[in-house]
Amino acid sequence: MRSSFLWRNRVLMTSAALLIVSLHLISTGVHPGDLAARPESAFLEIISPVDAAFTRLSDGASSIVTGYLDLLHVREENARLRNELARVKSDRARLAELEVENRHLGELLDLKDVLGANAVAANVIGSDATGLSRTLVLASGSSAGLRPGMAVLANQGVVGKIIAVSPHASRVLLIDDHNSALDGFDQRSRARGIVAGLVDDGLILKYADRSQDIRIGDTIVTSGLDGIFPRGLLVGTIKSVHHGGPGLFLGVRIEPTVDFRQLEQVLIVTQPPPHLDDQAKD
Amino acid sequence: MRLILLFAAFVVLGLAFQSAVPHLISFRALIPNLIIILVVDLGLRHHGVLPAMLAFAIGYATDALAGAHPGLNAFMMTMVFLVSYEISTRLMVTNALVGASVVFFGVIATALATVAFADGFNALADTGSMLGGLTLEAAVSALVAPLIFSMLAASKRMTGLPVRAMRE
What we know:
By secondary structure, chain A is an alpha+beta fold. Chain A has helices at 5-8, 10-28, 37-71, 79-115, 274-281; strands at residues 119-127, 135-138, 151-154, 157-166, 169-174, 181-186, 192-197, 203-206, 219-222, 234-242, 251-256, 265-269.
């Protein structure tokens, strides 16, 4: 038994079978409700609390380091003054943090008012674990009414869309990921195109016809025609327009309005405004 | 079972670390790829069907927190395990230096393969600007690898698991 071909090559055989399973998953995709989506959802659910704890821990460590660096300047002073200063600084930092958080939440509330009541706020607790894709992890999931395909926004503009959910966590594909695409147009000239991410970081407007009037500094907004993002939301501004080169289309680079690295809270559109359905049918 | 629990704990911590730390460090390339290090350790030091399945599961767990194509990281981690396993069966010695070398090339190869898989081989032409950061990430991962291998070895000793693979 142990000298048989199958036994001697059991690791290779198992690996080959697993590679085939992986390729099947990649080619067919994993859809919500699929059997293959359950382990992914379970992993997301298990890892997200640890992820959130790590985020809090790293923020705390960062505060301690910053506090320590600040305290180096007052080393000569006596212990009472140092402690008092530390306490005051700590309180001030906490108040400043609360102020920033309040401002963020206030801006999100304003955006929520604009969108109507069909939106949910969520905290960002992590980013893509490999760095090869541009995704975020949110601390809200299906228990808060989130589903894959929902639009994710910040007060500055469009962030991305939800691609996976577990009961208490979800993942967002950012608009600057190379697998992302959304329908947008130039607010000044009404020139349309598909906003897509690049492999080497960045955002472009694809399929913008050479005859169209697109200039540096123009604002790109969502058209609402993709049925995911409400119409008229900020995407970015035109950074460069390349007229040369082969092909039918312009080479247009976009600077996103949202700084994805600074995101702490986002808003998820749980139900698109009614007019979107009408537009999508046109 | 002990092997599964041990690696599960390391994977959860590794994934949480890789997901949370980019918020603090603006230069992503300085964050080591701990998951590849774990899979390389599996391939070099654990020969069997269970470690192969564990490598696949680690990849699928990574898919839950990375990328937009479920199954892609599972494929890559299974490949990394397979290469590590093949190397370990052909070399007389599989020390930390060998492990670090496999980690270095593993990080670069999996990143490029991920781009090629997700966007087609034409997309590799756009990876020029990525290569610098990718090489740095691979180097940082390779430097950190011996430390992680030591931590794994110590954890294995504590749980009564074999630290090295039985020669086949």
